[in-house]
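Would you kindly consider the sequence and fold I have copied below?
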Amino acid sequence: MNFFVNQGLIYESMPYHNIVFKGNDKEGVTRFASMRGVFDKQGKPFKCDVPGNDKRYGFNIANEESTELVVFEAAIDLMSYMDIHRDFESNKIALGMVADAPLETFLKEHPQISSIRFCLDNDKPGREATEKLMEKYYELGYEVADSPPPKGCKDYNEWLVKARNEKQCNLYSKNREIP
């Protein structure tokens, strides 16, 4: 979490203590922002996009030195993936949906990318989107791979939560201790 705060990618909105996820363009200008509640109300989590959002952008981490891009549906899954794999090197983007407008924009702004790894959810929409996106980007000349969370986990955040709850270090890459 500290990494994202220190990079200015997330912050807490007041007075409701929502987390705001920022999506910046290549120049560092925020073009997209979404809010997620920390507390559920009546069994439903609070989620919304900030008015004036540009859906062609998504929550992202760019590294001009990397030719790899890892793609997620949600910002929390991107964050969970980084916690599980300790990956601070690759480019990463959360689409905020299963459509690829943010992916298209990111690729235009980062032409060094040659490989895309899809880490979309293990549900029907995520699996169907992965199949379509892999085909589309393969045909555009990218090396593509499917890297869903393990069976029994809907997404990377659920994987991280289960790993922490079960204290199964073997779920982590490189036999890393659970934080």
Q: What stands out?
A: Residues 124-139 form the longest helix (16 residues).
